[in-house]
Amino acid sequence: MSAGEIILILFIYLLLFGAKGVPALAQTLGKAMYQFRNATKDVQNEIMKSTIDIRKEAASIRLDQVDVETAPKPTPPPAVQPAPPPPPNAAPGEVDNSKSPI
To answer: What ranges in the chain are assigned the alpha helix state H?
Structure first.
């Protein structure tokens, strides 16, 4: 929203509710901003607590306790087979059906 739009909205609000309604609007906006900031702080605190817990768990695991043989091993990607070259006597675009099982 631009400044002009905000001024227009405030002007319309002033016309509808009068000068006595402006402090109530400001108080409502202030309370809403306060609650929003508290909610974001709570979420940030929960994330920080969970990361601290994860770090503590990771630090408590000793590397000599990890069983390497039971750990999953990465699988290599499957090898791609190149297409066989066409027979030397085939015309371009011709399909060789001599080896077809049908």
So the answer is: 3-17, 21-60
**Radius of gyration from C-alpha coordinates of the chain:** 35
Which DSSP state fits 71? S
Residue 18 tokens, joined: 């009068």
Amino acid at position 32, single letter: A
The first and second tokens of residue 47, run together, are 């994330």
Q: Exposure pattern of 66-91 as b/e (b: 16+ CB <10 Å)?
A: eeeeeeeeeeeeeeeeeeeeeeeeee
Confidence band for 65, pLDDT divided at 50, 70 and 90: low
Other CB atoms within a 10 A radius of the CB of residue 39 amount to 10
Residue with tokens 């087979």: 81
- Report whether pLDDT(9) > 90: no
In tens, the pLDDT along 78-101 reads 777 777 776 676 566 565 566 655
